[in-house]
Design goal:
The chain is of the alpha+beta class and 93 residues long. The protein has two helices and four strands; from the N terminus they run βαββαβ. The protein is elongated.
Length: 93
């Protein structure tokens, strides 16, 4: 069993309120959860209206599968939001 964790920070310059940010965040997290069957949550920057900090976790059979899941999640996030990707941190154990 392999556990994969991913932290992504995004910048959403169009979000002028926490309400706008949370609408985008809720939508993105629901789509990622539904498509990849991973756990997903906001992990920081809750009071900053233009920065989205999200975390994802998955359990896989081996390291290659875990790596593939994380690669697909990153690509999906980049393709399905207008927010700019600031940083990606990944960990596989």
């Amino acid at each position: 069993m392999t556990i994969a964790a991913l932290a992504i920070r995004l910048h959403a310059p169009w979000a002028h309120s926490l309400k706008e940010k949370r609408m985008e965040l809720r939508s993105l997290l629901a789509r990622v959860r539904g498509k990849f069957n991973v756990s997903a949550a906001e992990i920081g920057e809750q009071d900053t209206h233009q920065i989205l900090a999200v975390g994802f976790a998955a359990v896989a059979a081996d390291r290659a599968q875990a790596d593939s899941i994380l690669d697909h999640v990153i690509a999906f996030v980049e393709a399905n939001t207008e927010a700019e990707l600031l940083s990606v941190e990944r960990e596989i154990r």
